[in-house]
Amino acid sequence: MAPSPTGAVFQDPQWLAHWGRTRRLYFDIGASQEGGHGAMVFHVKRDYNHTNLKITPPSTAVEPIMFPSRLLTPVKKHYWTTELEVSCIVWVVRKIRHMIEAGYGITRHIPSSYVCKTRARAICQT
Q1: What is the DSSP letter of 60?
Q2: Average pLDDT of every residue of the chain
Q3: Rounded distance, CA 125 to CA 79, Å?
């Protein structure tokens, strides 16, 4: 029996990867008053060595796990940029909390790093 074109697609998936608790977990966020909250939760490919965590991995090294998104409430549409970004981080962390608690998570978002260093150490420590 000849392989079907659909079967070939599933043998080498190019879209979503499964989450692995032993792999480093990343998330990249985007927040705007028009578009709402959006994120990409991902791993990097196993053969890619991501050592400089201040630089986002190249798109060719990313294995996306999920793309959560939502619209803003009328109140949040009046948030300033930093408030929008922090509310997006809070929302994403709530959505992927089970992954973060079971594994290891990293953010390169400067305002949230500052919050972790000052006021909310007990909440942000892993």
Answers
A1: G
A2: 81
A3: 26
